[in-house]
From TrEMBL:
<comment type="function">
    <text>Involved in beta-(1--&gt;2)glucan export. Transmembrane domains (TMD) form a pore in the inner membrane and the ATP-binding domain (NBD) is responsible for energy generation.</text>
</comment>
<dbReference type="Pfam" id="PF00005">
    <property type="entry name" value="ABC_tran"/>
</dbReference>
<dbReference type="InterPro" id="IPR017871">
    <property type="entry name" value="ABC_transporter-like_CS"/>
</dbReference>
<dbReference type="GO" id="GO:0005524">
    <property type="term" value="F:ATP binding"/>
</dbReference>
<dbReference type="InterPro" id="IPR027417">
    <property type="entry name" value="P-loop_NTPase"/>
</dbReference>
<feature type="domain" description="ABC transporter">
    <location>
        <begin position="25"/>
        <end position="256"/>
    </location>
</feature>
<dbReference type="InterPro" id="IPR003593">
    <property type="entry name" value="AAA+_ATPase"/>
</dbReference>
<keyword id="KW-0547">Nucleotide-binding</keyword>
<dbReference type="GO" id="GO:0016887">
    <property type="term" value="F:ATP hydrolysis activity"/>
</dbReference>
<keyword id="KW-0813">Transport</keyword>
<comment type="similarity">
    <text>Belongs to the ABC transporter superfamily.</text>
</comment>
<protein>
    <submittedName>
        <fullName>ABC transporter related</fullName>
    </submittedName>
</protein>
<dbReference type="InterPro" id="IPR050166">
    <property type="entry name" value="ABC_transporter_ATP-bind"/>
</dbReference>
<keyword id="KW-0067">ATP-binding</keyword>
<dbReference type="InterPro" id="IPR003439">
    <property type="entry name" value="ABC_transporter-like_ATP-bd"/>
</dbReference>
Length: 283
């Protein structure tokens, strides 16, 4: 069994490889407009970006800037008003097992054990109960919940439930994991532990991750690239490569390089948040 440090070292070479990897997600000139009783809301305005296979990319921006809408478009829950989204070169026309999703709330089946929650997807996809159970047990070990395999969700802490939700999303072996503020409901300490364990898990599975957050520290700590979004209408303001070494631990936040990335992001986000606040005030 590899140690956490060996896994992280392995991840470093994978990170180098991602700059050469094929394009996994191609969001091309996507605009999304919602009709509301108060008129049209442009949630995304000509958003374009590409993500390579195995990359960890954070979508960062102020509340209401359209992060979830863009993520939902990749998931196939929203249809672009204009533009196109491709995953592995295929146009996205709806949800599919190649894209796993994790939300802020774990949404587990309360009547199923941890193992059954995780094996549910593979069972539905036609795996035998033995195969589905083996997939679940592997993932349960990866998220560090072996002792709780037979436990029910209500007996677990919020962080543990979210680890089950992540394992469940990975059970169908998706090429892409889409995460919408998955640690937003957790306390600060649990959140920090979850961030480190997500990086260790990513080192093992190599899945492309798109992670939505409005937390600057979380985005810089996790990502290979941060896509900074502007508020209303949502646009990509900056595509920032985070060239910080891996493995990353909590001490990283004390480094001057980290501080420089944070200052860049803070300045941009502050300007955008103020702009959004002013817009809301006059509506
Ligand atoms: N189904 C919908 N119908 C109408 N308006 C919507 C719908 N979904 C989102 N919006 C609007 O689109 C804009 C972008 O919303 P979205 O949830 O994508 O932002 P966000 O950046 O994820 O925000 P938050 O961080 O607060 O979740 C907001 O103005 C929101 O009110």
């Amino acid at each position: 069994m590899m140690t956490m440090m060996q896994l992280a070292d392995n991840r470093m070479s994978l990170a180098d490889a991602t700059t050469q990897a094929p394009i996994e997600i191609d969001v091309d000139d996507v605009s999304i407009v919602f009709d509301t009783p108060k008129g049209q809301v442009v949630a995304a305005d000509r958003v374009s970006f590409q993500i390579r296979r195995g990359e960890f990319v954070c979508l960062l921006g102020p509340s209401g800037c359209g992060k979830s809408t863009v993520l939902n478009t990749i998931a196939g829950f929203e249809t672009p008003f204009e533009g196109s989204v491709r995953v592995a070169r295929k146009p996205v026309t709806g949800p599919g097992p190649d894209r796993g999703m994790v939300f802020q709330q774990p949404h587990l089946f309360p009547w199923k054990s941890v193992r059954s929650n995780i094996s549910h997807g593979p069972s539905m996809a036609g795996k035998s109960s033995k195969q589905a159970g083996a997939i679940a047990d592997d993932l349960i070990a990866m998220v560090g919940l072996t002792r709780f395999a037979d436990a029910y969700p209500h007996t677990l802490s919020g962080g543990m439930q979210q680890r089950v939700a992540i394992a469940r999303a990975l059970a169908n072996r998706p090429a892409v994991l889409l995460m919408d503020e998955p640690f937003g409901a957790l306390d600060a300490q649990t959140r920090a532990v979850m961030q480190e364990s997500l990086l260790a898990l990513w080192a093992q599975v190599g899945t492309t991750i798109v992670f939505v957050t409005h937390d600057i520290d979380e985005a810089i700590f996790l990502a290979d690239r941060v896509l900074l979004m502007s508020a209303g209408p949502g646009r990509i303001l900056r595509d920032l490569r985070i060239d910080l070494p891996r493995p990353r631990s909590s001490e990283l936040v004390l480094s001057p390089a980290y501080a420089a990335y944070k200052k860049d992001c803070l300045d941009l986000i502050r300007a955008e948040s103020l702009r959004a606040f002013d817009q809301q005030a006059v509506k």
